[in-house]
Specification:
The chain is of the alpha/beta class. It contains 13 helices and twelve strands. It has helices at residues 21-30, 49-60, 73-83, 95-106, 122-130, 150-156, 179-192, 212-215, 244-251, 262-273, 275-299, 326-335, 363-380; strands at 35-36, 88-92, 112-117, 134-138, 161-167, 195-199, 220-225, 238-242, 314-318, 338-339, 341-342, 354-358. Bound molecules: pyridoxal-5'-phosphate (PLP).
Length: 382
Amino acid sequence: MILPKKHAKSPRIPPKGFETANEFFEYVFNDKEMIWMGQNTNHLHEEDEIIDAMINCLQSKEYCKYPPPEGFPELKKLILQDLDLEGDVLVTAGGTESLYLCISDILKPNDNIITCDPGYLIIDDFGGRFSSGAISVPIYSSENDYKLTPDLVKEYMNENTKIIVLIDPLNPLGSSYTEEEMKEFAKIAIENDIYLLHDITYRDFAEEHFLAQKYAPDHSITIFSFSKVFGLAGMRIGSIIGTPKIIDSVRKVLINDLGTNVISQAGAIAALKSKKHWIEHVTTTTRNNQKIIKETVDEIQGVFIPVYPSNSNMLAIDLQETGIDPKDMADYLLLKKIFTRQGSYTSKRFGDNYLRVSFSIPKYQVEIFVDEFKKAVEFLRK
Ligand SMILES: Cc1ncc(COP(=O)(O)O)c(C=O)c1O
């Protein structure tokens, strides 16, 4: 018999009308009219070099072979160039796998890991599996600008803390760090000889962004994803960047010993090479869409956006004062073919406060959303 885990992955609760979460995801995935605001993915890439590169790779049948296990050197070089970092790179099947590998490599049973709530909750699960658990710092407050601050870290960490997770910009709120804050985090990591796990999945949406690895290279690991700004979520590709010493350590716990999807790597190489051709279009459209949402939210009594502007392609809309359960709001919008996320997906403590929406989608879809959202608040308001 396989014993139940103390720190098992939190079960996904299926929305109303679905028996399992997988059934729900299949339903939304297959509905071609569904407006995709529930996964922070990017739907703004048009026919471009990225698609061409993947089609060429497919047609060449290169996928019959295994790729180099740690990623094509060209891709590794392009990732370092994109970040203007020195070091080594492991190509993985996404940011999630990257997080798992780093956490499993670094933590020992008595250690702990600092995360924040709201945040990307799977990290807490990973932390719990390999250490005494995650110290999840509540950050949903204007007092700390809706983010994990250096002061909060100092307050919550202890002698067993081994990793501080910085999701930057933060899923779900879109808060991000100043250079000063990043320097302070670097100081904490160096002084305590611990690691900053810097998840930069949403970096390219930010107006400004500062890499922990620049300030504490020997105590930082950068988690990179091709799922968001690059528009490759379904291709499942990302990477880990760190000093050669750190990467050498993580290399020893690799799962995907036979490498990462060849077609995804071809897409990722083309995405980085062609970034200058599409990045402006993606970020400008995303920021303009955010303004449309803000204008609507400002017109509605009892709702507000905690972090505006969000430095990401998603934001939270606080519904607390309306008495609306975010789950009811997400269910209502789903019936209108708009996929959003109730707060409980990214928060254990504050899930009843907000709805998360992402907006790297065509403008007309955002306009449909704001119309429906206005109606939904009036319909569901308690
Ligand atoms: C903070 C954060 N890190 C990592 C990921 C997952 O990235 P990937 O699709 O590359 O596994 C997500 C996905 O939503 C995320 O929000």
